[in-house]
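#help-structures
NK: newbie question, is this the right format to request a structure? protein is Integral membrane protein
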Amino acid sequence: MTSAANSPSGDDRSPSGAGYDGTDDSSTPGDLALSGTLMIVYGLFAVFEGIVAIANDEVYTSFGDYVFEFDLTAWGWIHLVIGVLAVAAGFGLFTAEPWARIVAAVVVGLALIANFIWLPYQPFWSIIMIVTGLFVLWSVFNYRSSRTA
């Protein structure tokens, strides 16, 4: 085993070495790019879901009576607006700017709430969208920029 003193460059990056700075740089710009791509796909699916609900109310059926029941046309507009915002925020994530991550987190939070309330109409699809949204949130919150001020 080579120590920092015996190393030609004097730089040992192992956790037990003298050159270890204690930071974990486990996130990469690719993580944020994946989040942006997932948000764009997520948003496009929400747009399509909204268009279908607006164009043809009879496509979706409800399972039971719920307190938060809206007209399907209203749900269509909600999903359409959230989908457009998600696509825009997804493109913003490619810049890796802090404002884009904040906007993405807010939009995904709204989308998660909308999909939770949408569960009676499309249970399987809502669960897929919720899990995807949670992954995007995890990736956005765990991203650490390598730029120093």
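mod (FA): yep, format's fine, and the tokens are attached above. The first helix runs from residue 29 to 55.
NK: thank you!
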